[in-house]
Amino acid sequence: MESTPFYRTRMKTEFGRIQKRNPSFSLRAYAGKLGLHPGTLSSILNEKRSLPQGKAIDIADRLGLTGLERKFFLESTRTRISIRDTEKAVPSTAEMLHLQLHSDIIAEWEHSAILSLLDLDDPKPTPASMARRLTLSLARVRTVLRNLERAGFIKKSGSGYQKVSANTATYDDIPSTALKEAHRQELELARQKLETVDVRDRFYSSMTVAVSPENLPRAKELARRFMMELGDLLERGQRKDVYQICLQMFPLTEKTK
Questions:
Q1: pTM
Q2: What is the CATH number of domain 92-257?
Q3: For residues 188 and 106, what is the distance between their CA atoms, to the nearest angstrom?
């Protein structure tokens, strides 16, 4: 049985991701986004025809693909490169999720939240208790657990689960559609929690400052170090809750020519 080419899997994944944010997003709208006729797109997604090589670069651009993900996408229109093949191309010894692989785990906040739940010092959670603590449906929790188990991050242990590998991480300063989606979800969660969480249990702070762009690399380095030190501090003692820590820095002004 032939494996599904990477480009088809990637196009289906993106369509599903957009529909999750906007359930009314149609195949016709997705075809418009990709610059394809709806009938052509339908045939491609339903494995009735291949993506024309002449359209591959344009589609990759419209999907915002970069790095290895872009390379695999383009090559899969010429050869039978599948998701399984892309996983073989990336070392796993560093316990890092590459941005272009396992994209659902990177993009969807529930995966990292459930991994962190397994670090709590309380009795190890069951799927039902995970659903209660994260206010998710039991079906969604089971989907996330299945993803993490298939990716090798957890394994079943009695009536629950335990972590197999270290916490996930991604490379810095590399564009990725999955990582962008993760940031969008984090910002939306922050908006929701601002309204629902007691001020004593949360911290929001911001500042606006005139900057010298040449100091940005050093600022990012300091921010990453601070995040690591803050995480180390919060993990001391008995761990009872899971928190999301976000830090953003972006320009308010357009670049001068």
A1: 0.63
A2: 1.10.10.10
A3: 16
